[in-house]
Amino acid sequence: MIENLFSVILYFSLGYITRKIGLFNEEKSKVLIDFILYISFPALVIYNVYYLRFGIDIVYVLITGWLVIVSSILFSFTVGKFFKLDKNRLAAFVMMSSFGNTSFLGFPYQLAFFGEEGLRYAVVFDQLASFLPVTFLSPFILSYGSGKGKSIDIKKVLTFPPFVVLILSLLIKPINLEIPEFILGSLNMLGLTVIPLALFSVGVNLKFSNLRKEKNTIALVLLIKMIIVPICVVFLLKFLGIEFSTVWKSGILEIAMPPMVLASILVMGAGLNKDIATGSVAIGIILSFLTVPLIVYIMEHI
Known about the structure:
CATH topology: Na+/H+ antiporter like fold
Radius of gyration: 19 Å
Number of helices: 13
CATH class: Mainly Alpha
Order of helices and strands: HHHHHHHHHHHHH
Shape: globular
Structural class: mainly alpha
Number of domains: 1
Number of strands: 0
């Protein structure tokens, strides 16, 4: 397991260290993030969808992903109300407890634990059971917290490069179009850059500041997102008699990811509690080196 995690820790640490010594900063990392979103991520989507084997399991996993997010929103809202969080902090709390970092961290973990097969399922899960929910549900949560009307930016959803490529790839897949090996090889090489560049970028942007004030709320966010929810999903699926095939393991691993970077950006953009947002992401990334292997161990030994 340590061998599987080594590359994840290495890329992440290099990003953090290079920022600390002044070689990289957040501004420079934006170029890497743009390259990921517009070039390597779409290449990864095309390559993996081409080899993806569709079955009823993947449909069930996507439905489960949506149900888990909706359940997490309701559960974290109830918990936040119990602890009497004000609307501003409550909305930030719900956002960070419900949406996971399924791509930038999810993909490296998938590759480490389940190889290319797990990564193929994760690509579809990330777009249809993570990106879509946060896009369509977050405006309502942010509106509640800020007290302002928020509308869903449909254009932004429909023009997000990885999502556009995913839809096109899924539409042409039934045609059984044969893509030459040299093109697939090039797409694969581009797609492989997602993992190191994404983790490196996350490391560059990681900062620990102003966390003491919201340490209890952050701890509660991480407990719900990274421990309670994924473990409940594992035991519920086991109770229902579902066999943990690679597609299910891949989906559960995505559910177990720490809080989403995009969700923290949305929280800050809405003027909500940024300490909860940034703290949840920062500490969540570090804790994932312990919690993700724990969830994998439980799945494989339950």
